[in-house]
Every structure is written in structure tokens, then in C-alpha cells.
Queue: 2 jobs
Job 1
Amino acid sequence: MRDCYDTCSIISEFRDGKLAVKGNPEHPITGGFLCPKGALLPRWFQSTERLRAPLIRTGERGSGEFEEVGWDEAIALVADKLKETIESHGSESVLVYQYAGDRGAVNYAFPLRLFHYLNTAMLDHGICDRAGQEALRDVYGTAVGLDPEEIKNQKLIVYWGLNPFWTNLHGFMLAKKHSLEIWTVDVVKTETAKRSHRFFQIRPETDVLFALAVAKLMIENELYDGEFVRENVYGFEEFKNYVKPLSLDYVIKETGLSGEEIEDFAFGFAEKRGIIHIGYGFQRSLSGGEAVRAIAILPALVGHRFGFIYDMKTIDKSYAEGAFLRTRPARRIPQMKLAEYIENGEIKFLYVYNSNPLASLPNQNRLRRALKESDVFVVTHDIFLTDTALYSDVVLPANTFFERLDIADSYYHRYVALNEPVAKLYGKSNSEVTRLLAKALGIESPHLYETDEEVVRKILEINGLSWKELRRRGFVKVPEKPRKWSTPSGKIEFCSQRAISRGLSPFPEYRKRKGKYPLKLLTPTYRMTITSQYHNTYGMIDPNLYMNPLDAGERGIREGDEVEVFNDNGRVRTTVKLTEDVPRGVVILYKAFWVKLLGWNANFLTADETVEGYGDGSAYHSAWVEVIRVGA
Ligand SMILES: Nc1nc2c(c(=O)[nH]1)N[C@H]1C(S)=C(S)[C@@H](COP(=O)(O)OP(=O)(O)OC[C@H]3O[C@@H](n4cnc5c(=O)[nH]c(N)nc54)[C@H](O)[C@@H]3O)O[C@H]1N2
Ligand SMILES: Nc1nc2c(c(=O)[nH]1)N[C@H]1C(S)=C(S)[C@@H](COP(=O)(O)OP(=O)(O)OC[C@H]3O[C@@H](n4cnc5c(=O)[nH]c(N)nc54)[C@H](O)[C@@H]3O)O[C@H]1N2
Ligand SMILES: [Mo]
């Protein structure tokens, strides 16, 4: 149910007013243990900070001045305002903004039914893994790779721009359990890198060159699977000619890797027929799309049909969303451009659920300014009074996945889980609120009043899965059907026709990136939070800036100093920790904590440019800053 690779099977019990959780030992991937943040879920569920009554804003946006009202009044107000906005500005001035706060089929998608029915504008998701998705489609026709249960049959897994010891613990333990050799390619010596057999420490946004150089060495030394490539690859000869003139000296200079490291990678990867888990984290940069296209070629060179792990799609959940209720094609608004659309006055009504954009979107100063200066009516449905809720006109309390029926698939493995309610505390589910709004709007369509169980059972039926089996075991595996590559040529495309049709180069291209400020700011995932979630309930965050001692020395900065980190988007103050795990020229702040608790977060500094040609994917990591000591 959480926005996390593992989608654990959890056994929960509510007794004497207390929740207890443990891992389901029967589950083949997530097994009998929970990660450190999963184990603390009772604190989240029973938090005294959970919203209990709807709120209507009485003060300035962000001031925190609200009045508690009853559900009837709140729903009536939202429905009236929705109706009024559609009448005076048209249905496309209404936008529903949602993400993966809850990934249950019903609670992720059912509210969208209402907005489809009303023909409103819809969000085009680009916040997380979009550029890589497009890139993998260019090469394989799909971003769905290997079933992680196949890990047991492999010798080598490369974690490329991923920190699974923090973000995909069960996946990492699976590789360990089956004694795979583990390699990590990262800019930073992460906890995963420290536990890997080999660590390739690369300069930011130079992955394209590294992957192309590895491909070149594999081709020129005939380390690749010639027969597989002849039969299944489109554009191999052209690709071979493309990498031929690539100078290794240039690659060494740009990536910071040594010649031996590049050779070791090529020879070792070919010998052990490696697979690659391609990270979501690292592709969130302007170079992300091109990098993933280049990396995707490597497992095919050693003869894997789908030798990468990126995304998983096991079941068709579109029934829950109900796009069939539309009578007009949707106007799609790129997620990363929310501020721009608000500034232009194109959005007059914003309905947010399952997301905390006032922590998670980049360039927070711009977004907050846009909201303050516009007349957009904002409704937020959340479990807590988040930063987004603080800027809203109406706040509706949500309940949690412990309190309702749903099913969830995973973006990592092939198991679908049944989620059964264990207790009921406060708030209403996403689907309940949808039904209440539909009723208040006088909508008669029966599709808006289906129960959660009806939707769940229908999705199972569409996918040929058994409700009985799911109820018995709590999860079912969706078997993989034999599949081919759905590219224009029907082969793995080293020369991508799909990319060409979008005006991109037929082969992955390297572009040198440099910012106006000297230090590259990376804002990766933190171990004890899920993006902004759990900050308020666990209180376990790490707001320090991590910096290389040499960069600090040049600036007269010492361990523990208070510093100001700034660029043209914003300015934040925090303390410094010095570490050689972070290379020169790079600094780190962990992503997206609650601004109302910390006073700031990394997204006051991040870039809101998007990866052009790759679905307007986010480019958080293409940000540069300067750091000075406070009082210097
Ligand atoms: N604990 C925890 N787990 C989570 C989440 C969470 O918030 N907390 N979030 C979930 C979600 S939504 C997602 S998308 C995933 C993200 O999971 P990951 O992909 O593991 O996430 P990140 O830590 O953001 O990024 C991984 C690494 O990319 C590296 N990196 C940055 N730039 C470059 C580059 O140019 N080249 C290379 N090679 N590496 C680079 C960073 O140093 C970082 O270590 O995790 C999921 N799991
Ligand atoms: N700087 C920087 N920023 C990043 C990233 C980065 O790498 N760097 N990573 C990005 C990535 S990968 C992602 S996926 C996004 C995530 O962006 P968001 O989805 O906005 O992030 P979350 O903090 O997980 O917010 C989810 C919200 O949903 C609420 N919620 C949970 N369950 C329910 C429910 O059942 N009903 C309702 N109504 N609400 C619920 C939670 O309380 C929480 O407030 O952030 C992005 N932001
Ligand atoms: Mo994500």
C-alpha cells in the first residue's frame, strides 16, 4: 500500500486499542521481516496528530488558521465550489492532483472516476520514474523488466543509481540470500555501495558515457552474445559504428572512473551475464532519459531478453479509475508544471489526495508564491495536516490502509496483495469521499457508487484472479505470460525508432551539464521516511548537508558549522557533516521533509526543469548550489 518497491505482506492485529504489525513469513519476496520504517507503522496509524474533523480555512494560506466543521458542511462546500468553478471557468479549469500516498487499486484511482465523469483536466505524472520509463520503451517497448524471483538464477546484479539497502531492502536481501555478486554504480558511497562487492563511483550525469564505453569494450573484445544479438537486436551495426570513435580517455576524464574500472565492468559483466536494477533515483536529472537508454543496452548485449529491473505491471487496474466515464478526451497537465499552470490562471480548482506537493515538488518558493497569489480553490484530502493541507481552503481527514478493504500490486515484484481492515479510527477513505461528493453533486451514474468490494472483485475478474485464493493466502502471484518486445521492429532497438520519432538522436547522447553554481546538489531518498511521510510521526529525519572535506576546507567550513545553501531558486540554513563518501563538487540533502516542521526542505533548491523528450520527467538532481558558512 505504501509508495515503496517492496509492497510487503504485513500481518496486523488490533487488540486493546493497540496495533501490532509483523512481516508475513509466507510471502516469497518480503518474507518475515519489515524494514525499519515499516516496523514503526503503529506509530503512524495511532498518531495523535491524525486529522479527525474537516477544516475550512479562515486565515491566510499557510497561516494554519482553520475552523473545524462537520462532514456534511465540508462536502457541501466542496461540491458547491466545484459546480460553480465548472460553470464559470469550464471543467478544464479543475485539476485533480494525486500520487502514490496509497497504492491500493481503489484508493489510488477511484476518486479519478468523479473527475473523469466531470471531464476535468487530469495530471500527467512525471514526478518519479518517467524519463526512465520512456527510455526503456524506446529500447524494449516496455519498462517492465525481469521478475525479481529470477534473481535466484543469476550471478551478478548491478544496482545502477539505486540505494536498495534503504529503498528496496527485501530486494537487496534477496540478492544476498542467493549469493549474487553485487555491484553498485553511484555518485555517492551509499550504504548499498558499502555492502557491495564492487563500487563504481561515477561523476553525476555521466552515466551515458560509462554505459557506452562498456558497450564499446564488450563489442570490440567480442564479449557479447553474437547469436542473441543477430537474432533479436535492431540497429546493432549502426550502434557499433556509433560507439567506435568514442575515446576512452574522454570517458575516463568525464566520469572520473579509471580505465581499469571500465574494463573490469565490461569483462566481468559479460562473463557473469549480469542483470541491472536501474534506479529511479538517478534518472531524475536532465540526463536521465539518455542514461537509461544507454544502460538498457548492456543486459541485451549479454543475451538477456529483459535483463533489467525497473518497473512491474502485473494487473490491469484501469477499471477503478473509470476513464470510460469521460465524454471528452482529457486535457493533461504535466505534474512538474503545476506552479506554471497556477501562475497562468489556468487552474481554478485543485483537488489533492494521496500526495503532499508542498513538500515533494521542486522549486517550492515558486509553487508557494503561485498559490498565495492566485485565486485557485484548493481541497486536500490527507491523514495529516501536511504543508499542502496548510495551503488549502478545505481539508478532509483521510483514513489509512489499516482501515479499509483494497488490493495492491507492486512496482517491483509480481505479487498482488489483499488488504483487509483491522480497525477503524478516524477519517474517510478516498473512495468514501468520492461517493459523498458525487451525491452532493447530484450525480446519478451507478459507477460512482460502487462499493470497494465490488471494484476489487471486478478488477480480479478482469485479470482472471481468484477472490477466494486471495482471501485464503492474502496474496497471489500473477504469472508472467511469454512476451516479445513491443518496439516498432519487434526487436530490442539499439537504434531506437521511437526515439527518432520524438526528434531525439537514434542513439543515446552525452551532454555535459554545468550549473551556474559550483556544487551539484543531490537530494536522494531517506531511510526512515517515504518522501515526506513519517516525518511528523516518527520524527526520524536527517536535515544535515553532507559535504566533502576538501570542498568544505576551501570555504572555511568545519564539521557541525551552520551553513547557508543557496541558488537562484532559494536559500536554506542547516548544519554540515563532512564525509568522504560524497565526492568533491557534490553536496547532499535528503529529500522532501515537512517544511512546517523544519522551516525548509531540499525542494526550496531543486530544479523544476523537466526532461524534454522523455515525458517531462522530473530533474530534481540537475540542481547546483553554493554553500557558505553562516557568519563568514
Ligand atoms: N526508505 C525509503 N524507501 C523508498 C522511498 C523512500 O522515500 N524511503 N521512496 C520510494 C520511491 S517513491 C522511490 S522512487 C524509490 C527511489 O529509490 P532509489 O532509486 O534507490 O532512490 P534515490 O535514493 O533517490 O536515488 C538513488 C541513488 O541515485 C544516486 N545518483 C544521483 N545522481 C546520480 C547520477 O548521476 N548517476 C548515478 N549513477 N547515481 C546517481 C544517488 O546518489 C542515490 O544514492 O524508493 C522507494 N523506496
Ligand atoms: N528533492 C526531491 N524531491 C522528490 C524526490 C527526490 O528524489 N528529490 N522524489 C520524488 C518522488 S520519487 C516521488 S514518488 C514523489 C512523492 O511525492 P508525494 O506523493 O507528494 O509524497 P508523499 O510525501 O509520499 O505524500 C503522500 C501523501 O499522501 C498521504 N496519504 C497516505 N495515504 C493516504 C490515503 O490513503 N489517502 C489520502 N487521501 N492520503 C494519503 C500522506 O499522508 C502524504 O501526505 O516525491 C518526489 N520528490
Ligand atoms: Mo518515487
Job 2
Amino acid sequence: MFPSSLLLWLGLGALVKCAAGSDWCYTGCAHSPSHWGDVSSLCGGQRQSPIDIDTSKVHADPKLLNFTFKNFSSQKVIKSITNNGHTVKCSLEDNEVEVSGGGLDATYSTLQFHFHWGETDHHPGSEHTIDQHRYPMEMHIVSLKKGLTVEQAVADPTGIAALGFFLNATEDGDVSGPWGELTSYLTSKTNIETAINHNISIDDLIGNVSRTKYFRYNGSLTTPDCNEAVVWTVFQEPININKNLIARFSAITGLTNLYRPAQTLNGSQVFASPGVSPPSEAWCYDDHCKYNQANWQLLSLSNCGGERQSPINIETKNAVVNKALDAFTFTKFDDKHTINYITNTGHAVKCVLIENKVEVSGGGLGHVYSILQFHFHWGSNDSMGSEHAVDSKRYPMEMHIVTKRKDLTLDEAVKTPNGLAVLGFFIEPTLTKSSSSSSSSTGHETNPTQSPTANMESWKKLSNYLSAIKDIDNAVPDSDEIQQRVSGSADSSQQDSLQIPSQHLCTRHAVSAAGMSFHHCI
Ligand SMILES: *[C@@H]1O[C@H](CO)[C@@H](O)[C@H](O)[C@H]1NC(C)=O
Ligand SMILES: *[C@@H]1O[C@H](CO)[C@@H](O)[C@H](O)[C@H]1NC(C)=O
Ligand SMILES: *[C@@H]1O[C@H](CO)[C@@H](O)[C@H](O)[C@H]1NC(C)=O
Ligand SMILES: *[C@@H]1O[C@H](CO)[C@@H](O)[C@H](O)[C@H]1NC(C)=O
Ligand SMILES: [Zn+2]
């Protein structure tokens, strides 16, 4: 009697636990992150993780000193690896690995580490973000306060210590080595525990990342049940690994976008160790940050106080005709397969092109330039948002096509007086008649009432992507073949503006959630 009822009880317990545990997801099920509160009410709590770490608001804490890591250098402690359907987890040998110091009040016994990632090269998937920057991946090393069971630890406000390391994708770098070996174990088969036979230590994976530069806050588990039991340590420097190794995580496991969106801090404080580099110098256009436009020249390495700054007001009466400014040659501007992805950088909406495909020359440039990206500037509350003005007239928007001299690297180009060439196009909605009434024709041959109209279908496709990039650094690969030539039939005359239907300008509302300026429908 007793053994069988015990079996029954255990079986039911396991079943109930399993059902609850698998009842959530990141995308594509009823219990995606915004509904995790239905899976566990703790997920709706006040100290939830992950968060965005705003480095301009962190407080330095002199008590956040060196960690002591026990057996992080041992090549025998990483026992096994499992794809559990939510992540890939590496289990450690019991009671061998420990973390203490680093401002922690206790010694913590390390159980496992696991990973969070995005989708492709262009869709990063770290959980924490630094000044809204999302890294491609994040590794979490999870430890329990020594002597506590899991049940006790999740009930203790400091029962769990989690170490977060960002993973950054580099173009080159070792594809063998510890990360090559670890990723060779990745599999799409779930819940199969595979022994790690290679000699890999945790130190081998972390590499030379500084362990004295880190952020600290009290938060939660980032998956249900979201227990508010975690002392978080997020290291400032990322682990740089080859982008092909990062791509393996989503490609081989078939799991994508395994990260919970940033949670609100609800007034609590993030601390920084004394080793953390000074706050990153976030700049902005308006007054919501220290480095607003009036202070850009204070940014270190800044050229913003220089003598040939842009934009300017173009006074047509002072412009001199220059015969050297001959016709442009645009190469592949009509190619529908040149836009790589579109992204919200927090400063602009930017379309990044496949490298070395689209080119411009002529126009008095003297070199062949290849197009890197184009992006947009706009206003707010019905103000005009073009950067340049012509005879003090500004337009609702301005598109910048940014190109680099083909014979230079980007680093060389930014240090060369003609290293970059930017093509600016003004944009205005077709429903306003302003161009016919207020644009002052000043002796040049252009007729402002005959502004060219753009390819509407291309603008519509492009603006349809805006809602997908509400979050800064989200990027959507451009599969829909947006025509690079959104500039339609515009010729290269400076005074022409592009006319696009005003309902497409309205879709810029989508971007306001990212804290950017935008303006209402005209
Ligand atoms: C802390 O670690 C750094 C880097 O590993 C080292 O240079 C420094 O001496 C250590 N400080 C103490 C107090 O141990
Ligand atoms: C862990 O470290 C201790 C010494 O601190 C050592 O005796 C032990 O062998 C190490 N364990 C492993 C698996 O490397
Ligand atoms: C991340 O990697 C890119 C190259 O892929 C590099 O330019 C950048 O500096 C790296 N970031 C950090 C913080 O190391
Ligand atoms: C791991 O190291 C041991 C010695 O500590 C060695 O015998 C073994 O061959 C190594 N395994 C691999 C896969 O390199
Ligand atoms: Zn995690």
C-alpha cells in the first residue's frame, strides 16, 4: 500500500510540476512574457528582472570589491549540457564550484549556467541591456546560498546569486577553442542530458573579461516563477566570440528570442563596482539627458565643437554655381535586394544596406562611395524636423543616405576630410500644400510646385516595419524587398522634396515608445 501510494503521489507531483513548468514561452503561446503573471503571480512583482541598466543613474558602491571564484578554473566541473526547450543549460558537479566576495553577504554554491539569445545576427537577445543596448547573447551563472535547498533559496530575498555575462559577436575570432567545443554539443533534441567530455573550465569561457567591473541590483529569476530571490551581478565588459558561434545557438537548437523584456526598476537602485568605467556618454536631441545638443562638444572624442559642423541653413542667394558638380552615377539604387535590415537606434530609424553593393560617384565627389545606411530625421508636435534648411525653410523630415569612400575602412573614412559622403533628401507629405505656397524660388531653375512623388509602395512597406522596431536595437531583417530607391523620381537637385502620403508619416507614432521625438499626423 504505502510504496504504491508514494509512487502515485510522486507521479502526480511530477506531472503537476511539469505541466506548470512547460506552460510558458517567450513567443508563440498563450503565456508569453506579458502573461507570465497568469503562470506565477510573482512575475507581476515589484523587483523583477531583467532591467535596462542606465549607466547615468547607477551609484558607485565601494563595497563591490573582488569576487572569489572557487573551481572556476577547473576543467572537470562542467558536467553536462541539456536543451530543456527554454534554454541550453550546463550543469556543474555538485558542491565543487562557489562564488563569494563581490559584495555578496554569503558564499554561494554554483549549480548551472545557461544562455539567452535572439534570432539572427540582427536580432540580439541578451536579457539585460546597458543604456538600451542589447547584446547578442547573455550567459547566466546561477548559484544558491550555501546550505540552502532550492525551495529555501527561492524564498530568501538573497537566496540566489546570478552572474550575467554579455556575449558580443565579432566578425572573426577563434571558432575552435572552448566556445567552439561547447557549441559542438548543441542539439535540437530536448531534455536529453549529454555529458561534456571536453576539458572546458568556466574561466575558459569567460576569458579575459574584467571581473571587477560590474553592476549590482536585487531582482528576480527571469523565467517563471520569477521568484524575487536573486542578487544580480551584471558584468560590464562582454565576452567577445565569433558571430558564427553565436549563430549556432539559434540555428542548431531551433530556439529563438529567448529573453524576457526589460522590467521596471520601480524606484530601486542599481549599483556599480568602483572598477566600472565612467557612465557612457549617452547623447540626445532634447533636454532629457546631460549631453543634449548644447553639450555635445563636451563628449570625449567629440568633434561637435569643430569649424565645419552640419547641418546648416542653405542660403540660396549665397550659393555659388560650381561646374565641377556634374551628374551623379547611382549604382544599384534600383536593386530590391540591398537593404539588410531596419533598426531603431534610439536616435533614428536606420536602414542598413548589404556592404559594398550600392554605390554613388560623380556629383563632384571625386571618388566612388559605397552606401552604408540611410536614416531619417523628423520633428515633434507639428514642428519641422529636417536638419538642413533652405532659405530658413525646414521640411517635416529629411532622409540621409550615408556613404563611405570605397577605398577606405570606416575607421579611416571618419578621419579623412572627404571619407564620408551624405546625400540629404527632404521629405514632406503630399497632403500639405506648403511647397507651393511658402517655398521661395530664388533664381535657380527648379520649380518648387512640381516636386516629384516617390514610389508609394516602397514607403508603405518601409513604414510597416516601424511597429516592429519600437524597442531600441530591435532590428527586423528586410525580407520584403524594399526598394532602395524610395527616393522615387527625385533628381539630384537640392531643392526638390519628396512627397509621401501623410498617413505614412503618421506611422512614426510607433517609434514614440522608444522615447524618441516624433510628430503628430500632419
Ligand atoms: C582585485 O582584482 C584585480 C584584478 O584581478 C587586482 O588587480 C586587484 O589587486 C584585486 N584587489 C584585491 C584587493 O585583491
Ligand atoms: C575544487 O577546489 C578544491 C580546492 O579549493 C580542490 O581540492 C578540488 O579538487 C577542486 N575540484 C575540482 C573538481 O576541480
Ligand atoms: C562588440 O563587437 C564589435 C565587433 O563585432 C566591436 O566593434 C565592439 O567594440 C564590441 N563591443 C565591446 C563592448 O567589446
Ligand atoms: C582532458 O584532460 C585529461 C587530463 O587531465 C586528458 O587525459 C584527456 O585526454 C583530456 N580530454 C580531452 C578531450 O582533451
Ligand atoms: Zn537566465
